[in-house]
Write a structure and sequence with these properties.
The complex is a heterodimer of chains A (about 350) and B (about 450). Chain A is of the alpha/beta class. Chain A has 16 helices and nine strands. Chain B is globular, with a radius of gyration of 22 Å. Classes of the chains: A alpha/beta (about 350), B alpha+beta (about 450).
């Protein structure tokens, strides 16, 4: 079984304890307390962090020393037999995502378009933007990144399944896998690296692909001239260096992103997993603050990157007058492939 | 042409009668596991007077007569066990009245659930009735004749409790009004404060008369319907979970279900909780009450609410189309269920029995219990799917269902829409004086024994 590459000394000598001090869901009196708590986690002792963490992934971004505090918290929780969400919900996710030989693979050659285990991604990865790779789709639990199980503190499932997923792609003979889901790209880069799991292909982040394609299609773009708020997903915290791509893409298609309180490092989670783990009060509060903030800056659209966020927030933003849209659909609107959304 | 056929044609016209083999073939069977049996004639009346004349003819000639809605009970209740006439009521499908302020509708005896639903949506969008999760072509009268349940059963009881009056053609041919319509033009009460004669027909499966008209309670149709789903893997907690939920007295409908396929459902018991309201504030208030009521199970990690956003559209369908998909899991499109009415605290024993039967008989199961009257009891469905072209599998399903009924009776439950064999098992266990009373009623109402013979037949 793969082991997390974690260096205790890095935490022991950390001058900031940003992983916990920046946490939006736990409060600490200062560096001394935060440092003491993370060191308890490091040393396998009980810590309130293990009981209070909402699994937002953000500490992976806050830690600038690359020591993977989130994966460590998940490991420690599992070691102690803890459940973050209810046991039946945890097991439901494990069962639901088990490989059963029911997968779809298109005309894959050098490149595969990973649709994870999310049917909506198959629809998104179509049209002019994806014309060269749309037929090379791979969909199913055999190709699903298992990062979701970190929410439920089941790193054993991640470690067991990730090598199988990687091997399934390897057997397709691909050189590149374009990941339509942040979580897949984050898994193939951040998690695989943290556990020393070799990835024998080049993971390509779909926003890199999207930006490149929109540049190539520049002549077809009719600026949308709209104002939007961006819903950053938890898994983007695993690949923070990719965050600037959103602004570049939206800028290219004439979408204004006014500065708001809950953006970038301070973004709020869509809260659906939080609802399972910490209950409705925190989830409702997060969603309300998030949507209030979107409206306060005059956004007309709520732009999603992750279909799971879109599923959990679409109805709620629509009820408050915002139009929910995936960033790929927004690009399709800009080149005239899709109608403008009506909330 | 024989005399009976000629007489039937005289009553309803030649387009309303058939004894053609290809038509009798369809009326000989239902989608369940019971063997088919051909009728001699199929007749589709259009009026109460035609029904009366057909029944008078049958009574005079001692010909069995089987009133039929859409024939979807699955337990062979309209298979003409002794031949005779199948009385197909589907042409009597008019909505005769909606009294908006008194919230009731009067419909003909062959009116389907779908027709009433569509009519109310178009003309009275703020009113609704209790729709069962059966195909929309099933009829309202047949549903109450077998004490069916629907989407409002948790709030208001069996659908038969919602009847507000009936017009019946008795087995001897008299047309009889039951309840408030027997005294005046209003259809607001099936019994009270009179002796409640509706009990002579509700639950009798057409063995005591033909329902030609009926009144049915309507209820407020709230602007917003919502759903939550609570999941636990501890079956012993289910009765307590349901007790906490029903204490709230705010729920439209509560179903508890478990099934081994697809894999995501394995090992868990799912409580689908429906609620409604006219404003977002009302919905959110109710949602919080629901979550708070089950907090202790969330804290212990024994249960939690799952995200249903992606399946909400399917869950909120009325009726739910996905239920029929179960029939095709083993391919071949067959399924039948035993649905005993029982107390909720027996849920764990029934759940164990379903799994045991499925394993022993090597068949696929699914189970869904629906709460009745705020939790006073529940309908616990023991459902098995089968392939129609596999007689061995059908035989195993039949044996498993028989055993399920035996178990339900041993547990003090009441079989729901029992087939004729299950009726016999029920009557065998019944208090002898109650059985005598049943026999007395049947003999007096149907002296020639022509009405749906084989059903609730004491001898």
């Amino acid at each position: 079984m793969y082991k997390l590459k974690f260096n205790e000394k890095v935490c022991a000598t950390c001058p900031s304890s940003d992983c916990l001090l920046k946490c939006q869901y736990m409060t600490f009196s200062g560096h001394k307390e935060a440092h003491a708590e993370i060191m308890k986690v490091v040393r396998g002792k009980d810590s309130r962090v293990l009981h209070e963490c909402t699994t937002c992934y953000a500490c992976e971004e806050y830690c600038k020393r690359g020591n993977h505090p989130y994966y460590l918290i998940c490991e420690r929780r599992e070691e102690k037999g803890m459940f973050t969400a209810a046991r039946p919900i945890t097991n439901q996710w494990i069962n639901m995502t088990e490989m059963q030989g029911k997968f779809l693979v298109g005309d894959v050659k050098d490149k595969a378009l990973s649709c994870c285990y999310i049917a909506e991604l198959g629809d998104l990865g179509t049209g002019e933007i994806f014309k060269d790779v749309a037929a090379a789709g791979a969909f199913g639990t055999e190709f699903m990144c298992p990062a979701v199980h970190t929410h439920f503190a089941r790193m054993s499932v991640v470690k067991e399944r990730l090598p199988l997923v990687i091997d399934n792609f390897r057997r397709l003979g691909v050189k590149e896998v374009i990941c339509l889901h942040d979580e897949c790209y984050g898994t193939f880069t951040s998690i695989a690296s943290a556990y020393g799991i070799e990835v024998p292909f080049k993971p390509v982040y779909y926003m890199d692909f999207l930006l490149q394609r929109m540049k190539e299609l520049r002549g077809k773009i009719k600026p949308l001239n709209i104002t939007a708020a961006y819903q950053r997903p938890c898994s983007n915290r695993l690949i923070p260096d990719k965050l600037p791509l959103v602004k570049k893409i939206l800028n290219l298609i004439g979408v204004k992103l006014p500065r708001r309180v809950y953006q970038d490092e301070n973004c709020l989670c869509c809260a659906e997993i939080v609802r399972s783990i910490s209950g409705y009060k925190l989830a409702d509060d997060l969603q309300k603050r998030n949507i209030d903030d979107m409206l306060a800056v005059g956004a007309e659209y709520c732009v999603f990157n992750c279909p799971a966020c879109q599923s959990s927030l679409s109805e709620k933003v629509s009820k408050r007058g915002l139009k929910p849209v995936h960033i790929i659909d927004l690009c399709k609107m800009a080149i005239g492939e899709k109608e403008r959304k009506v909330a | 042409m024989n005399d009976i056929l000629k007489s039937l044609i005289d009553i309803v016209g030649d387009k309303g009668v058939s004894n053609a083999p290809e038509e009798l073939w369809f009326y000989a069977r239902d989608p369940g596991v019971l063997s088919p049996h051909n009728p001699d004639y199929v007749v589709a009346p259009k009026t109460t007077e035609q029904v009366q004349k057909i029944v008078q003819l049958a009574n005079r000639e001692k010909i069995p007569i089987v009133p039929m809605g859409n024939g979807m009970a699955l337990t062979g209740l309209v298979i003409p066990l002794k031949g005779g006439i199948v009385l197909d009521m589907k042409r009597m499908n008019k909505i005769l009245e909606v009294n908006e302020k008194a919230r009731y509708a009067v419909v003909e005896g062959g009116t389907s659930q779908g027709v009433l639903k569509a009519y109310l949506q178009e003309h009275y969008p703020h009113l609704r009735h209790s729709i069962p999760d059966a195909p929309p072509t099933t009829t309202i009268a047949a549903n109450v004749a077998l004490h069916g349940q629907g989407r409002l059963t948790n709030q208001y009881g069996f659908n038969s409790d919602m009847v507000t009056g009936m017009e019946i053609v008795l087995p001897t041919g008299e047309i009889c009004l039951i309840g408030s319509p027997s005294l005046g033009p209003y259809w607001f009460s099936k019994g009270p404060t009179l002796p409640d004669l509706s009990g002579l027909f509700l639950g009798w499966l057409g063995a005591t008369g033909v329902i030609t008209k009926m009144g049915l309670r309507l209820y407020p149709n709230k602007k917003i319907r919502e759903v939550e789903m609570f999941v636990t893997d501890k079956v012993e907690l289910v009765p307590e979970i349901l007790y906490k939920l029903t204490h709230l007295e705010i729920l439209e409908d509560v179903n508890v279900w478990f099934q081994p396929k697809p894999l995501m459902f394995v090992g868990n018991f799912h409580v689908t909780i429906y609620f409604n309201g006219d404003t977002e504030e009302e919905i959110e208030f109710k949602r919080k009450m629901i979550w708070d009521s089950l907090q202790e199970f969330i804290d212990s990690k024994d249960g939690g609410f799952m995200n249903v956003q992606y399946m909400k559209g399917m869950l909120l369908q009325m009726p739910q189309r996905g239920i029929a998909d179960f029939a095709d899991v083993p391919k071949g499109g067959g399924f039948e269920y035993s649905g005993p009415i029982t107390i909720i605290e027996h849920f764990p024993q029934y759940a164990a029995k379903v799994v045991e039967l499925a394993k022993r008989y090597d068949i696929l199961y699914a189970s869904s219990a629906r709460l009745i009257s705020g939790g006073h009891c529940m309908m616990f469905s023991i459902s098995f799917a089968f392939n129609r072209s596999n007689p061995g599998m059908m035989k195993r399903v039949k044996e498993a269902l028989d055993e399920a009924t035996t178990f339900a009776l041993e547990m003090g439950g009441i079989p729901w829409k029992p087939n004729f064999m299950e009726q016999k098992m029920t009557m065998k266990k019944m208090d002898p004086n109650a059985l005598n009373l049943l026999q007395m009623i049947k003999k007096n109402l149907d002296p020639e024994g022509i009405m749906n013979p084989g059903n609730w037949e004491v001898n």
